[in-house]
Amino acid sequence: MSRYAIDALLRPPVELWSVLVTLLAALIAATAPWALMLPDGVGYAVCACLIVFAAFRARQAWHVIRYQRRLKRMPSYRLYLDRVPLSRHKLFLGRGFLWTQQHTQRLRDTLRPEVQHYVQPHWLYRWARRMELRWESARCLSSLAKLLRSRRWWNPLAPIPLLGGNPALHAVGIHEQDVWMDLDERVGHTLVLGTTRVGKTRLAELLIAQDIRRGDVVIVFDPKGDAGLLKRVYAEAKRNGREKDFALFHLGYPEASVRYNAIGNFSRITEVATRIANQLPREGNSAAFKEFAWRFVNIIARALVALGQRPDYERVRRYINDMEPLFIQYAKAILNQQGKAGWQEEVVKLAASATGRHVPHALRGRQAEAIALTLYLQGSDIYEPVLDGLMSAFKYDRTYFDKIVSSVGPLLEKLTTGKIAKLLSPDVEDQEDERAVLEWLQVIRNKGIVYVGLDALSDTTVASAVGNSMFADLVSVAGHIYKHGVPGTEGGVPTISLHADEFNELIGDEFVPLLNKAGGAGFQVTAYTQTWSDVEARLGNSAKAGQVAGNFNTLIMLRVKELATARMLTDQLPNVDVLTLMSVSGVDDSSDPGSGVDFKSRNEDRISVSEVSLLGVSELVTLPKGQAFAMLSGGQLWKLRMPLADSIDDAVLPQAFRDLTTEMERSYITNDYWYRQRETWWLETGQGMANKGDANGEAAATQS
Prior knowledge:
By secondary structure, this protein is α/β, with parallel strands linked by helices.
C-alpha cells in the first residue's frame, strides 16, 4: 500500500471480504475439488495457494485495523529501569520512528471531517464515560460504575490512559523501533524542553540510570527537590554496586548532607570574588556597588589565602563587616616577613599616642593597634599589594564603607544563617562533625555520583547562589582537567554526565562557559526546563539566551504550551509537499436534439499539492505525556515515546533514605496546600531540637 501516492488507511478494512472469499474457495478446493473441475492433487495445491493469499490479505487488513485502533488508544509503554537496554556507544531514548513527509501526510489526513469516526472514540465509549459519572453516586449502580472504570483486559470500554494529547501523533508511525543516540553527540550537550508534569524528570531518570550503569561520573542538580529522582539515583547506584560513590548534598536537609565550600576551590584567586559578586544585582546604580563589593571581597580572599586560610562564606562575611582584625593580622605577618627591626615598639608608641586630635577623622573610633599599624606603614617604605588594599579599605569612613558594600551583606547573611552555615562553610578541623566535604576534583577522580538538592522552593536566592558557585567551581575544575588531566587516574579523561533539572533556576554567567568550553574536559550537559522564556527572563537578555541555545546540539521537546518555545524546533525544519484528494462530480446536458445524447456525467478524483512545514506548532502543543520530538544527529527529526517507570517501591533503599524521600514528598508542595505540612524529617529523627516533645505538642496544636 505504500507505493500509492496517498495511504488509504482511514477506510473500512475491505481486505477482509477477499480473505473470507479466498478461505471459502480454499475450503471448496480441499474438500470438493470436483466443484471447481480440479483433480484431487491439484485441489490441495490450489487450497495452499489460496490460504497463502488469504494470509497476505489478512495481514493487510490487520495493518489497517491496528492503525485505526492506535489512533484512538495508544498502548502504554512501561519498563523497569534495570531492564533498560545498555550500550557502551549509544544512549537509549525510547521507542519511535524517523519523522518524514509520509507521517505529516497521515497526520493531515486525520483532520478531515469525513474520517473523524476513525479518530474519535466510539459512541459506546462516550456513553460509558457519561454513565460512569452518573452512576458513581448511585447506591445500586456504583459497582457497575467501578467496573466501567476498570482498566482490565476484559473491559472493552476501559478508560483511555490519562496521557492526554493527540494519540495520532505517534500512531502515524506504524513501524516502531528502539531509538538510540550516539554518545559522541552528547559532548555537544542536550536540551530538554517540556511543560510541567509531562515526563521531563522521568526522561532524566532514564538517562541517569544508563549513565550510572555505564560507569560515568554523574552529577544531578535538582533545584526544587524531586523525591522520585533522588530515589532513582540512589537505587541505580546501589543496584550497580556504586553506593559508596554516592554523595548527597541538600540545602533543605543539612543533617543528611555532605558539606561543601562553594568558594574554597579555585584556579585563580579572583574567582572567589566573582562567584559572590555575580549573585548581586547588576542593573542601574547597582552595577557600581557590585564592582565595589567585588573589590573588597577580592582583597579579603587574597589576604586569607596569603595567611594560609581557605576562604569561605563565614570568613568573608565576618571581615566584610569588620576588616580590622584581618588588617591587623595581615599587617603583622607582612612586617614579620619583611624583618623590620623594632617595629613592635614603634607600633606600641604610636598606639599610646593615637588619641584625640592626633587621629585622622576617618579613623576615629577604630582600635588603637590598627590605627598605629596604619600610621607606621604610612611612614615606612613597605609596599605589598594585598596589604595596600586592606589599608585603603580600613581608611574608609565606616559609614561610607558600609554603604558601598551594603549589597553583599544580605546575600552573605542568607548563606551563613542557621544550619546551612556549617554546611557551606565547613570546618575541616571539627572532629565532631563527621560529614564529608565535597570536592569536585575528588568526585571526578573517584568516579562519584552526586545528587545536589538546592531547596529552591524555600529560598531562591541561596539556591541560585550555591548553584551558580557550583557551576563556576566545575568550570574551574574543567579548565584544570583540560590542561593537566585528572591526577591519579588512568585511561584518559573520564566522562562527566551533568544533569540540570529546572536549569532556568540555576543559569547564570557561570553556566555559559560550562557549555562552550567544558566539552574538551569530558563534560556532557543535559539541561531540562519548561519554556525558553524562563531562560531569557533569568538572563535578562535574549542575546545571551540565544548564546546558550546555540551550545545545545541535541534538542528533545516534550509537550510545550509556549508558542515561542515550540518554534525553537519547528523553525529548524524544512517544508514538505502534502497531497489532498478532492472528489469532483459534474453533469452536462446536450443542446443538440439530433445527437441522441441527453446529458453527460463525470466523476473524478483530483490530487492537489500544498507546501506545509514538516511539523507544526500545534503538534508540539498536543503531545501526549511521555512523548517527544527529538532533533538528533545534526537535524534528523525523531518521534519517540519514553518508557514510564513502574511505580514500585524500590527495595534497595535503606530506611534513612526512605524517611528522607518521604519527607521531601510531604514538604515540597505549593502554598495552595500549606496546611498539609508536618514536622521536618530531621525533627522526626530526633536531630533537630533538644526537646522533641515540645515540637510535637506545637505540631499537634497547629493541626487542631
